[in-house]
Amino acid sequence: xxxxxxxxxxxxxxxxxxxxxxxxxxxxxxxxxxxxxxxxxxxxxxxxxxxxxxxxxxxxxxxxxxxxxxxxxxxxxxxxxxxxxxxxxxxxxxxxxxxxxxxxxxxxxxxxxxxxxxxxxxxxxxxxxxxxxxxxxxxxxxxxxxxxxxxxxxxxxxxxxxxxxxxxxxxxxxxxxxxxxxxxxxxxxxxxxxxxxxxxxxxxxxxxxxxxxxxxxxxxxxxxxxxxxxxxxxxxxxxxxxxxxxxxxxxxxxxxxxxxxxxxxxxxxxxxxxxxxxxxxxxxxxxxxxxxxxxxxxxxxx
Length: 302
Hints:
Elements: H1 3-6, H2 13-20, E1 27-30, H3 37-45, E2 51-55, E3 71-74, H4 81-87, E4 93-99, H5 104-108, H6 134-140, H7 143-154, H8 159-172, H9 178-185, H10 194-209, H11 212-226, E5 227-237, H12 240-252, E6 271-273, E7 278-279, H13 282-287, E8 295-301
Parallel strand pairs: 1-2, 1-4, 2-3, 4-5
Antiparallel strand pairs: 5-8, 6-8, 7-8
Helix pairs in contact: 2-3, 7-8, 7-10, 11-12
């Protein structure tokens, strides 16, 4: 595997790194190591005194490890960030970066089942040791549960009808492969917008399989305690529900969107937004379709 293949350039990579406002001697966290693209760029800006702690629960990420003494890899879900930072004597860090999308590395590995472009087992597990896969979800969830997943995580307009079709098929012949699913959902795909439809539906299943929203909530709630004053939080999201949680934390001080107040009735906000939320440029979208739904938010710990 070549360096170019391994250290791919993620969506809005340089904007993310600029948002961190890196102190060369600082300690930084990349909670979504993936293909190593962001981590490589962070390490390029660190001095010999700097340190980077990267998280990834996907065992395949080990293929992308960077040989650098300043890098510590944690092979666990980033929802446990605070525990591991305490264990590593890095309770307060200078910056935290999260790219919430599935990595290009995962999408391009057809056998992982993340992409509709390949026929393989319906897997989609980031942690292969967990029991729930996309196939078991479709076969075991009720029609109501499937409808909620497609509606909430994929914003699928015909989620109710599609969930009925999926449940009926699962009762007749359990889902095993990606083509099994495509054969059922193809009739519902809007003309001239099929690929967007498939992407959103697969996104919905992936989010549910990997419990991504709950992981994100746990992670965001820890960022306040884990950042030093003036430390930066940089989050790249690809779904309105993810972005809403990030926005609430930055703008209102809590992921629920409730503004906390002190004894005198003054708003307590741990972060200040740095710039406005930023979408990817048209130029980047043309070269990387994954960037179309990307939204970047940057905040500084007060």
